[in-house]
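User: Assemble these into one structure.

Assistant: Restating your components, then the assembled model:
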Amino acid sequence: MLKTRIKEYRAKYNLSQEDLAKKVGVRRETIGHLENGRYNPSLKLAMDIAKVFETTVEDLFKY
Amino acid sequence: MNKHTKKNPLSYLGWLGLIGIIGVNLSAHGAWILQLFLIYFFFFIYRNVPADELFWFNVKKAGLSSFILGLIINNIVLITLAIFESIGGNQDATKLIIGMFLISSFIPLLFFIGILMYYNRQEKKYVEKDNA
């Protein structure tokens, strides 16, 4: 599973899981699963999240 | 919801439940088997659940397990029917075939529903855990 910095970036951008979920068009549960490394996102979703945080996929997700 | 979610297509399976209502009305005429279609009404609970990629991931996992279970049950049913035939089946053969067909059709469906419910519960449990 991938390690992510989504939680860190959410705090930086002052976004809740719900806010981020709405921005990228998924459910809040999906963001929770991503943050805790229980689910690997599709490349499209990873890129959309990276776009919200104005960063790269490589920065957001670590193997 | 936008890009990654669509209107939940899984909920459309719920309409098959209407066949179950026909079965209830025709049960006196021997069409009781159709009542089993009432199970499909379960899928309406996903009507308001956005179908994002985690949802489909869970559907795929549940579908794979049910498919494998279906294969196993089908093989058992076929072997049972072959044995029954080889020892000289009698007039109860039709009942046996119908019973076996029901088992091989609806057990995987029930299993699929059960696993999907389990995954949904797990999702909610993790969200509550994250909030705590």
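Chain B has a mean pLDDT of 85.
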